[in-house]
Amino acid sequence: MAGLLHSNTVIRQLKRHFAVHGIPQQLMTDNHVTSSPNYPRSNGLAERGVRSAKHLLEKCARDGSDVYAVLLNLRNTPRDGLPSPAQCLLSRRTRSLIPLVPSQLTPRVESNVQAALFALRQKGKRSHDKSARCLSPLEPGQTVRMETTCGFDKLATVSGKALQPNSYVVQSNGKAYVRNRRHLLQVPESNPINSPRSKTRRQGKETQRLRTGYRLNNTRQRMGA
């Protein structure tokens, strides 16, 4: 298996595809300009493809179906108002176990695919923009809170913009992080999260919460008595 991970193996497999379909203008790979960490929406196309593949494999495992036959039918199926993937790539349907009349196998160039795909994406963008808002840009040296699993509880300093869209490189505790703008919250430098005033406010809220819980427990005990 170790030999399958070498770059020569990848190049050889890619050349097989290029010999059939031609040399692409752009080759998209991983570990280059990556998507924003903890923000799947920034890489929605790949995430959707992975989700569809997982769903297909799970369904084949449950039904005992042939994966390759399912893939053949999937690539022959039009969706989202667009021609099927086989029609877009080969300009015709491919023969499968589903009966077809001979005329449906006749090659025909689909000329309006790009315009239809652009219109579909614009429709999705308009739907997204109804609830979206633009976040103000950040400047190097600015203090922010970085979102973690516990909320916006980690202080960080902006180092600059990252290669990814809408992302920044921030420094926290001597470590560099790349985070989407959505995960960074501006804070006034004069009142950072770890200042004595902020700590006192948080301690006061915690004390009030404990007192409220204590009063509720005493009330329940008296009512139960």
Automatic annotation (TrEMBL):
Start and end residues of each stretch annotated as Disordered: 186-225
Record InterPro entries: Retrovirus_Pol_polyprotein, RNaseH-like_sf, RNaseH_sf
Membrane-spanning parts: none
GO molecular function per UniProt: nucleic acid binding
Superkingdom in the source lineage: Eukaryota
Amino acid composition bias (Polar residues), ranges on this chain: 188-197, 215-225
Official protein name in the record: Integrase catalytic domain-containing protein
